[in-house]
Amino acid sequence: MGLSLRRRLCLLLLLCLVVAMLTFLLNPSTVNKQKQDSVRSVQKSKIKRVTGHRRRESLHPKETPVQRPLYTWDNCTDLLQRNQSAVDLSESSTALSHVDHLHVAAASCVQYTQYWQWDSSSGMDTQDFPIAYIIVVHKNAAQVELLLHSIYTPYNIYCIHVDKRSPSAFRAALSAMAGCYDNVFISHRLESVVYGGYSRLKADFNCLQDLADSPVKWRYVINLAGQDFPLKTQNEIVAQLKVFGGQNDIPGVQSSSDIHGDRTRFVHDVVTNDGEMSVVQTEKRKSPPPHNLTIYTGIAYYIASHAFMSWVLTDKVAKDLLEWSQDTYSPDEFYWATLNKLPAAPGGFSKPTWSSTIRAIKWVYFEGKQYPPCQGKYVRDVCVFGIGDLQWLIDCHHLFANKFDLNFDPVVLQCLQELLKLRGERPYDTRFTVKDFPRKDIPWLLL
User: Fold this and answer.
1) For residues 56 and 144, which has the higher predicted lDDT (pLDDT)?
2) Which residue has the higher pLDDT, 308 or 272?
3) Which InterPro entries match (predicted)?
4) Where does 377-441 have alpha helices with state H?
5) Which of 101, 289, 330, 415 is least enclosed by beta carbons within 10 angstroms?
């Protein structure tokens, strides 16, 4: 009997233990906690996955974490189908409150390139039509990283010019990122870039000279800023460049404005006030442009053929104009446009035109006239796009757009990134194709 009683007591205790464990495991709060722990584990493993070639093992220095783009096109189409004026910054910020944080390069090159795996569907055409990119940057490594991997293919070549005055953590992060790829590099000569100064043009030239020595036989070079973002896939960009047929996309007109005229009529100096460098106009008159050149006003950004850039690097007129421009204001906005009008310029176009495929931009001066109002904010009279600008950006024929700010409204960047991915995967899906693209109605293509 004694033994039987002990057995009964043991069975009773075992039964109580089983009941207690089942009660704990079936408790909703316990189940939710287990799910959360599981999600965190998956997220951590994703953060460790980081595309392209392995170049060498290196640890990436950490920078200020930024929320990582993890939006889906379903969310983006939902935003597009609603009243755009109702989509504001607070909604964009809330949409990202639950996602991972992106630490710019907190892993080895193997992990990093595995994470940013190249999508061949969006850039395979660059194998036979490589493009050179010049990217001039000074801040926000996470956004530069997003830009690079949105235009990356292993067949292109990328030169990044990092401002000498940028924080050391930013420069180290960009160097580590470039070090993981055979076709991405930091320019060998860096400038302290001053807004409106010759240093901005020199930054392009430094990269251009590096690219001239590259073994990659690139067809065109495109220069970008860190706050640009593509509106077309790499295959679509190649399709547009093939239509160019060796012509340059460098807009420019003769300026009738005294403001623009003063940029080249007077000597300008770089001054420093309270640690800030700026370009100021002096009362000293400049000598006339060399070789009796007519100065054309354009923009700092271009799509130029290899033949044109090779000519720029070696031609005496181009060299003399570069020398003459050093004490002017914003020479990057007239140098390329002026040279492109010369009869000797390969792929040039002599007639004045602003028509271009380079980049979509909203200036405050033309709001409501040439395009709908900015749905983000204005910085230096240029719209920093918000999610409400998404449909306008999608409908643009341009290859790139400016400006974006990952810290201001990240969702518009995420939706564009997701759209490019879908267009790369489904090039014949009419829901995602671009109307009237590639463009063939540009004036300098109708000769």
Assistant:
1) 144
2) 308
3) Glyco_trans_14
4) 390-395, 410-425
5) 101
